[in-house]
Amino acid sequence: MKQPISQWFIPMAIGAIIAFILNPLLALLLPDQAQPYAAVGILPIMIPVAWIVFHYVRPRQRLGWGCVAIGICLLALFTFSAWDAGIADPDAWSGDSGAAAFFFLIIFGIPYIVASLAMIGLGMFLLNRSV
Question: Do residues 124 and 68 touch, judged by C-beta distance below 8 A?
Fold first, then answer.
């Protein structure tokens, strides 16, 4: 039985967004590897995510689970990038580097945390309405 393209659109979009979010995360976690910014590095993440979303999530809940997954990936991306920047180091908060760490949290932290929590909240709202 052939599936129409409209049923594959949301899972492929969710997979592509998650792959683009997780791509820099992979570069942070695997610094000795080449940074996988080419499409070849994105496809191994996008295809399994799209397949899982298509086969295991009901059609009415796909958008909600996609928003929750994207929100969690955004929160993980900020957490690992702040960790990589040295925010967790106590010496990072002394002198001028403390001001830089504070402005890093203000400029990048607040929008990422608000956006990720908004995506998770929107996803939970959509999941609640689709039941």
Answer: yes
Q: Mind spelling out the 3-state secondary structure of the chain?
A: CCCCHHHHHHHHHHHHHHHHHHHHHHHHHCCCCCCCCCHHHHHHHHHHHHHHHHHHCCHHHHHHHHHHHHHHHHHHHHHHHHHHHCCCCHHHHCCHHHHHHHHHHHHHHHHHHHHHHHHHHHHHHHHHHHC
Residue 16 near residue 39, CB atoms below 8 Å: no
pLDDT tens per residue, range 79-94: 887 777 677 777 767 7
State the number of CA atoms in the 13 A half-sphere of 121 facing the CB: 6
Q: How far is CA 86 from the centre of its chain?
A: 21
Tens of pLDDT, residue by residue over 91-100, are 767 777 777 7
Q: How far is Cα 63 from Cα 105, in angstroms, rounded to an integer?
A: 30
Q: Rounded CA gap, 101 and 98, in Å?
A: 5
